[in-house]
Amino acid sequence: MSDAGEVVRKFFATLSTGDFDAIGEFFDDESVWTSGNVGRTQPPPKGREAIIEGFLKPIRLGLFEEGDPKVEIQTLIVDGDRVAAETIGRGRGRDGAPYENQYAFVFQVAGERIRFMKEYMDTAYAGRFTQGVRDHLAQG
Known about the structure:
By secondary structure, the protein is α+β, with helices and mostly antiparallel strands. 39% of the residues lie in helices and 34% in strands.
């Protein structure tokens, strides 16, 4: 059995590469990723394909320079199959604007897979950043 904390560390290191195939290996058909306001407006992505193709790719490829944002773990707390992580995401938008947002995640890990994760972030900051990138791209 894998150490849940080590799985989460590997996940963030892989997420920071922007390699979607490798990132997808942390999920299976039962995995769920809830984030920000997603739960209030639509069901959270469930399963590898929905998480990668319907959620991560559009955000990362649509808003950020390739491979960004990078994730730095600040705090990691492990209790059996549950992990809490405090992180900072840093990178550049497709418009060149710097991005730096603080996140908190709660995970449930099963073996080498992430079964469930809940992501918390400064959604007001993320919204301003997103609008700035979209405005810049629309002008260019």
